[in-house]
Amino acid sequence: MNRTALRFALYLSIIALGIAAPFIVPGIRTQLSFLWIMIVFALTWDILGGQMGYNSFGNVLFFGVGMYACVLIQQHSGLSYFPALFVGIAAGGLVAVAFAALLGWGILGLRGHYFAIGTLGLGIAAAEFASGWDLIGAGSGLVTPLYPGAVGGRETFFYFPCFILAIVTFLSLRRLYRGRFRLAINAIRDDEDKAEAMGLHTTLYKTVAWCIAAFFLGLAGPLVGNLIGFIDPRDVAFASSSYGVWMLLMAILGGKGTLWGPVIGAVVFHITQELFWTYLLGWQRVALGLLVMLIVIFFPTGIVGWVRERWPERFGQRVDEQAQRTADQ
Amino acid sequence: MDNLLILFNAPILSVQLLIDGLLVGAVFALVAYGMALVWGVMNIINIAQGEFVMLGGYVAYYLYRAGIHPLFAIPVAAVLLFILGWALYRSVIYRVVDRDLFTSILATFGLGILLQQLANQLFGADVHIVPSGLHTWTLFGGMVTIAQIKVIACVFALLIGIALIWFLKRSRMGQAIRATAQNARAARIMGVDTTQVYATTFGLNAAICGAAGALVAMIWIIQPYLGLPFTARSFMIVVVAGVGNIGAVFLAGLGLGVAEEFAGFTLGAQFQTAFVFALLVVILVWRRIRLARQRRYLS
To answer: What ipTM does the predicted assembly reach?
Structure first.
């Protein structure tokens, strides 16, 4: 069996498993929905953080903006549940893109650590504004409309959009990373001035990359909001200290700058979290801080990066064994 | 908007806000000076800066609980935080000193979460106050009140700042710190133990933050989550003032204090934190637009 067939089989089995999962193990379908959302988180963070070298602490902003847009439409549009939900999700994605385009004009001109801290400020400012603004529920948050179907049907219903979103995000990025786009954003990561001197419209590429990340996050927001059923500005929508940190943690854990890295990181992190987090009894966030520190200091290449260093020949890099031996001696 | 009208109708209130802002701004400037020190010498932006402030505040709180007047907590907090900063450098920070900036930002970000959540677990999430037992002066027939503790805090912040400048200018270690800031490699060649210098600098920064934290506990409140706003404040002060300019840091700190008091009053107290972070973003964007005109960027 050649590689293409193997890869095709892998994708098919993931899709088959994804569709069958809520029926095989219905008890954990909410956790599984979150697994797919985590994959979206890590993948979208990696567009800027890994591929473009713009490490953002504030991507959770788009997630929250999308969530608020959708729930406000659901509450005030007067449509019945499913059309309102559909319009709301679409609006969530569009509003997030609009935010990204507007903010990108100002923020993306910042480089390196200024960008990192600027986006950190952005995420927290959004949370604080949302929790002070009475029109969108202020600190007490918003409640999503009641799911009209049977009890327990909501979790199954929302599992599939999450699953589809993760697959679509993955495939879109896979397609995107094949072409000129990836070369351009990698060039920006490696040396932005040189990239600009070579005639790349760096600002355009940066904004487009941010908008893509924002779009998928803006779609993920409404799903999570409806899945949880309650929107708290600080802990659900603009949750910098949980989702915001997880995003970059998962992408770095899996291996930033690779396509599969964030996926693997998200799966590993989410499973670890679901299995062990409850035993920590309130010490979860302490563990999270420790984990961020340890991974950044001791494991910056991530899982995929480590595998690549360990077995470079599997990834099409030729290793001169004689030179290796000489080097070892 | 209603509050803005009040401000117009009773201009004396703005004197109140101005004085409060100036007094509080001195404490902001102190914390920012610590950040500028670490940034200039070690080329690290310490996101855990505000967490040191928070820990200093808890030192003051527990000393107060033990029956000691919180003003004596200032040196105690400084010494304890110096030891903590030193230990953190020796265990964590030395691994990221010569790595790229983002690694150090992420590592100190993780450290910040760690300290914040540890404080949350160990001390509880409750908001505490540390009463200093001092009085308030009233001016203009009760329209303007000045808490004595705020004046004392401002004076202490100034004294600590002056002591620090003296230390950096005169002492042997201070000279070594400045030499390392100019050129770490050359300093090493000249026989400066840069590891020691880095550890001292980081400890010194933590000590400054600890002292500032004790002041903050007395003039405001103390709770585990007050760290990040302080990090944001110091960062924007340093961005506006520049890393090596102590006078500008002080002025920018005062300016931020005043701006924050006025914003808190006109927008409402619930938006004060939002204002701090939004101002951070606005300042960064404004700086970059100014620089972009000259085809330069913030770095």
So the answer is: 0.83
